[in-house]
Amino acid sequence: QVQLVESGGGLVQAGGSLRLSCAASGRTFSIYAMGWFRQAPGKEREFVAGISWSTGSTYYADSVKGRFTISRDNAKNTVYLQMISLKPEDTAVYYCAQQGRPLKSGSLSSQSAYSDWGQGTQVTVSS
């Protein structure tokens, strides 16, 4: 059974930084693409960043490009989201997700490519 546990959320002032972590267990982490999504109050869940299983290729939503960095440490079964220059509009619950097909990197931005999700961690950016 796959478990994804996010941590690192919190309250930060605009312009500040946070690093989210997602610890995965239950299956071989290194052969699955991973992603981060977020959901703000009253809005649909949206893609933030994704990273492939093989080359570590990354893909970002335009709204976070240049400010957020996704990375993975396969030895620690963990994926990270480094966030800098945070804005109030980044306020949301952030979810870690793992794709469902091993040794494949489906569309990193498509929610339907992800089979397992964490419980989420709240990020609040004050102005």
Please give a structural write-up:
By secondary structure, this protein is an all-beta fold. It has strands at 3-7, 10-13, 18-25, 34-39, 46-51, 58-60, 68-73, 78-83, 92-99, 114-117, 121-126. Strands 2, 4, 5, 6, 9, 10 and 11 form a 7-stranded mixed sheet that branches. Strands 1-3-8-7 form a 4-stranded antiparallel sheet, with no helix packed on it. A hairpin with a 4-residue loop joins strand 7 (68-73) and strand 8. It is globular. The mean pLDDT is 96.
Question: What's the topology here?
Answer:
Layout: E1 3-7, E2 10-13, E3 18-25, E4 34-39, E5 46-51, E6 58-60, E7 68-73, E8 78-83, E9 92-99, E10 114-117, E11 121-126
Distinctive features:
127 residues, mainly beta, 4-stranded antiparallel sheet, 11 strands
What is the CA-CA span between the terminal residues? 40 Å
Number of strands: 11
Alpha carbon gyration radius: 13 Å
Helix content: under 10%
How are helices and strands ordered from N to C?
EEEEEEEEEEE
Largest sheet: 7 strands, mixed
pLDDT average, as an integer? 96
- Tell me the β content: over 45%
Residue windows where pLDDT falls under 50 for at least 5 positions: none
